[in-house]
Amino acid sequence: MDTCLIGYGRVGKVTALVLSRDYNVDVVVFDASGQRVNEARRRGLEARLADVSNPGMTSRIAAECDVVAVALPSRVAERVVQQLIEAEVRAIVDVSYVADPLAFHKPALERGVRVFVDAGLAPGLSNMLAKRARMWLDKASRIVVYVGGISAENDDLFGLVASWSIDDLIEEYTRKAKARIAGEEKLLDPIWDAVRVELPGLGEFDAMPTDGLRTLLRSLQDVPTLIEYTLRYPGHVELLKSLYRLGLLDDKPHVASGCAASPRKMLVRLLEERLPKSGDRVVMYVEAEGEREGYWARTSYVIDATQDDVGVETPVLTYMTGLVHAWVVVRALKGYGHPGVNAPEELAQKLADLEKLLESKGIHVHERRCYEQ
């Protein structure tokens, strides 16, 4: 057995489909849900019921697999990746959010394990585009990543589609964002440090600083200003401010009718039930400015795709994340990478190949450049 996938949720389903259909890779699925295991089997995949919170199970998976793709909620992903490293699997490709991916580097290096972190859309593809932009400039003064998974039409209260973990979505709104501004490391608040932006050809958005730069803060240390913003339709931030003031983003349990419940967990449950499950749009705008050949220069990379445009059954955000995840898995299978943590921007030199995959699915990366004396 060469390739295994832990987690057959929203993203994992796309990863497995792309690996098996586009790359002819035999992938074995492990999931804790019998329903999801049966669904994978109906789709022609080998699938096994597995509780990966048990270190013994991750050791068994590591013994059978050369490359393990991880697509789990953030609350369990970090522990599973750590256990896989300790079990000395050859390579791990993680699309899940973990608090500090660089914490894996030393143990992975000691055990000769290649760990590909943040192997998704953003972080992931956004890192590769930021690195490409930096490579084009002789000297970069500023790189900003704008990215959002929103509904195709701003016609409801939130302007969102349930395209990924709602628990992780709310966590993104409450977690401080690491950024660098004029050479100084900053912690920004997603709600209270949000700004309104007009992106050329894309429209007006609320832009919330979020914690997606991650390894870029280390690899692009020569760039004085680095920020990532999550995009939402105008008015979204004001709604979040109201939810915050009401305490609905609070994780502390409150008692009502004799039962204790966290307002945040209740909000997550309601959003899971009420948000539409399809009809989304992905907007990505990566902009860099600085000097090139003695001129002030700016370059930007733009993606604007809807689920209807691409013609897929799953939300386009989920689909694109799974596409990138599967593509990185194939790189790992081909022996790419080094022991320790492999940041997504290290794959920037292979980006043309990923763009071909995206183009074949109807997803286009547009480049814009300009100079001034």
TrEMBL record:
Keywords: Oxidoreductase. Pfam families: Sacchrp_dh_C, TrkA_N. It comes from the Archaea. The keyword Oxidoreductase applies. Residues 120-356 form the Saccharopine dehydrogenase-like C-terminal domain. Residues 5-84 form the RCK N-terminal domain. InterPro entries: AASS (IPR051168), NAD(P)-bd_dom_sf (IPR036291), RCK_N (IPR003148), Sacchrp_dh-like_C (IPR032095). This is Saccharopine dehydrogenase. It comes from Pyrodictium abyssi.
